Prior knowledge:
Blueprint: H1 11-14, H2 24-49, E1 58-60, H3 85-88, E2 93-95, H4 114-121, H5 138-143, E3 147-152, E4 166-173, E5 176-181, E6 192-195, H6 211-224
Antiparallel strand pairs: 1-2, 3-4, 4-5, 5-6
Amino acid sequence: MLPHEPHNPPERFLARHRDSAPSLHVARYRAMVEWFDETCGQLLADLDRRGVASNTLVVYVTDNGWIQSPDRPGYAPRSKQSPYDGGLRTPILLRWPGHIRPAVVDQPVSSIDVLPTLLKQVGIRIPEDSPGVDLLDDRAVRSRRAVFGACFAHDIPDLDRPERGLRWRWMIRDGWKLIVPDPVREPAGTVELYRIDRDPFEERNLALDQSRMANRLRRDLDRWWKGPLP
């Protein structure tokens, strides 16, 4: 569960961040991240010690991003439970010594890519209707035109119809990111368009200035999923 709340790291980690962090809340979060990092190291070292690392594909994926609030416990705005970069952008890590060449891929990917990646590595055919791609297939990753997603209420209102908790739909393509709020659950929201390759912190909404691009992406997003009807 690390670095989930409560942020209660051992003092040996917290001591290294007290003086460098802008607040104690941030220091505690950074210490939690370091604590998590240590546990990952212990796990991977044990795989090495047991001699099974070369036969074990380790995958890291997480459910949301987090920006620690400097003023209080908890997350800052535009991070967890938001459609912005701080809430959506998380790493996917693959570790398989002797099989995967160390590299960093900047192309947008999705957690839906984990399943086809694992199936391919164990020799199981990837379903033809799978929306994901094999993350170890560079050509497939780079040829995909867009990545789509949706944000839902933290507490699912209806297990049988999860779309009832929809808050935002979003997509990323060619350096552009479109965010479309659900009119029922986010009635005060507006369509937002960002050039994230130039504006990574999503500070300038270009939906009005670049209305043609916003409409073009909206059509693609609607073809992916229009969301629930009112």
